[in-house]
Design a protein that fits this description.
By secondary structure, the chain is an alpha/beta fold. The chain contains nine helices and five strands, in the order αβααβαβααβαβαα.
């Protein structure tokens, strides 16, 4: 986990200088969220805080959770991670285990707040992993459905063409991260979850 330490410390320093108001929706996960530079603008007027860090795995999100999320006193939480775990060769079962550990930490440290898991996206660069991605997404759907305030946000299916392959325009040139159009789609999908995710 040392690979992430410098960025996590930078987030902690920024938080100490300018802590967010309690009760916002915290976005936590990997670079697909970290690179969403227009997140606050796209989801106005709802208060959101971005605590994602680059290249993070779901396992890393579990490891750093105490340092990055509870200090924000979130009113709700949106998660996006797991993509990099699979890309690093972890089996779907390991990623699913990390998700359950993360949800346990949310309950212990943040209480019964609304929690959403955004489906792992169908990146062209990781299309070979689509069966494992679907397996993790289905397990996440079930895990969130079992929670009183759990939400599974399906961004996977809306990012596919009619032929079942990813829509190229939704992705950056690397075939992994999102384009501006991709983020506009995500924002539109998230807005359908207004209550109680953004007004807990």
């Amino acid at each position: 986990m040392e690979w992430y330490e410098e960025e996590v410390r930078a987030i902690e320093r920024a938080h100490a200088l300018n802590p967010p108001a309690p009760g916002a929706t915290v976005f936590y996960g990997s670079s697909s969220l970290r690179l969403w530079s227009t997140l606050e603008e796209d989801l106005m007027p709802w208060p959101v805080v971005n605590r994602a860090f680059g290249g993070s795995t779901l396992a890393a999100c579990v490891h750093f959770f105490e340092r990055l999320v509870p200090p924000c006193a979130p009113g709700s939480l949106v998660l996006y991670a797991g993509d990099n775990d699979l890309g690093d060769g972890q089996p779907a079962s390991s990623v699913i285990g990390s998700l359950h550990r993360l949800l346990d930490k949310v309950d212990t440290l943040c209480g019964a707040i609304p929690v959403a898991f955004m489906a792992i996206k169908p990146s062209p660069a990781r299309w070979r992993l689509r069966y494992a991605i679907r397996q993790v997404n289905e397990a996440a759907r079930q895990a969130l459905a079992a929670r009183p305030k759990g939400y599974f946000i399906d961004v996977y299916q809306p990012m596919l063409q009619r032929n079942g392959e990813p829509v190229p325009a939704l992705f950056a040139d690397d075939g992994l991260h999102l384009s501006d159009e991709g983020y506009r789609l995500w924002a539109a999908i998230l807005r359908t979850f207004r209550f109680p995710l953004f007004d807990p």
